[in-house]
Amino acid sequence: MISGLSPLIAAISALLPGLVIGYLVRHLVASRKVTLAESRAEAVLADSKAKSQNILLEAKNNAFKILEEAKKEEKERNSQLSRIENLLTKKENELEQKGKEIFSEKEILKHKAVELSALKGELEQSKEKQLKELERISGLDREKAKIELVVKTEEEYKDDLYKMTRKLEQENREELEKKAREILTTAIQRYSASHIADAMTTVVSLPSDEVKGKIIGKEGRNIKAIERLTGVDIIIDDTPEALVVSGFDPVRRQIAKLAIDKLIADGRIHPAKIEEMVEKAKNEINEKIKEAGEAALFETGVGPVDPKLTYLLGRLAFRTSFGQNVLLHSVEMTHIAGMLASELGADVSIAKKGALFHDIGKAVDHEVQGTHVEIGRKLLSKFGVDPKAILAMEAHHDEYPYAILEARIVTAADAISGARPGARKDTVEIYLKRLEDLERIAGSFDGVEKSYAIQAGRELRIFVTPTKIDDLSALKMAKDIAKKIEEEMKYPGEIRVNVIRETRAIEYAR
Length: 510
Hints:
By secondary structure, this protein is mostly helical. It is 70% helix and 7% strand. It has 14 helices and eight strands. Strands 1-3-2 form a three-stranded antiparallel beta sheet, covered by helices on one side. It has a three-stranded mixed beta sheet with strand order 6-7-8, with helices on one face. It has a two-stranded antiparallel sheet with strand order 4-5. A hairpin with a 6-residue loop joins strand 2 and strand 3 (242-246).
């Protein structure tokens, strides 16, 4: 047994020194690492202490500097406050001294006011005594003496006062008239417009003379249809490539011209097509009327108004007054009224609006009873126009008083526009009035569908409703109308009354 353990003991004995040596080596290595770590830690700690001391030293230096600066600022502030306090003390002393002086002066003034009041009382008493003494000596009281003095002065200087008054009035009148002439001359010179009066005929150009035969139609049915639907007289003569549309109403002439132009362009000319083209021409004229109203508003600078009022304004483009186009006359008046209002310091917008719409009643005076001024007032009120503009327009024929300055300006502008050389022709207006009266008399009879004054007023063409008027009634109506014309109107020569009764039978094949 013992002999079996001997090898094991020998092996352990051999390994033991190696293990001891290994242990010692590892222990030495670990000790060296610890020593190195401790050295490094001590170095880091020393460095940190040095840095912290430097930072602490720098912070102390900065704190010292800040403290020094704060002390310096505080010293300066205290010095400044001391100076301000000294100044305030000085001012307070000065104010106190001035207050004492003012109080002293106030007391002196009070004493002087008392003395003046006493002196005033003494003077009043003395004056009263003197007046009483004068009244006693003269034998007149104060009021009578005053009246007598005024009367004597008036009698003595009456002629001189009258002459001076007349002289001042004359000078003022001359100066005012001179100024008025300058203003009117300036306004007239600043605005210049043409004064071409509307003619009573319109020429329609034709592509060839062959078209004349188409327009006349078989047995004249086409030309009769045009005349019946438009109310104008178509004149076809030897003038090459032209025909003449005659009529006193410019709207009717323009409708007829447009319809004929459309018929020529279409090439088909017969009564049914004529009716169609006349209807289209009427619609186009309505558009032109609207455009004319809008153009007038734009040109004059008058603010936007109700579209219906704009349309009525445009209708004036086809209306004349003493041969002068009413819309052009109104536009011209608007410019002149605006310039006059500017010169006189009046309201320019009110003057211009009153001038532009002063004749608006003429757009419907053939449809509504009353003067064009009264109709115009109602229309402008209905469409919400400024009441001042109504006051400005209503007095231009002296039917209403001049309520505002702009009313006189509108009247003056109306006179200037109408009085321009060549602007108006009385004979033309009288002639047109006679034609309108002819149509008015015909329209007053029951059963009349349309009536047109043609041939320069020598013929009155009347279309009646066939279901209401028979042939015998048509004959009687012609006599009655002729008699009424003779009773109510004055005219040269004779007037032919032509009553037309036309029966149509219309049916549709379906």
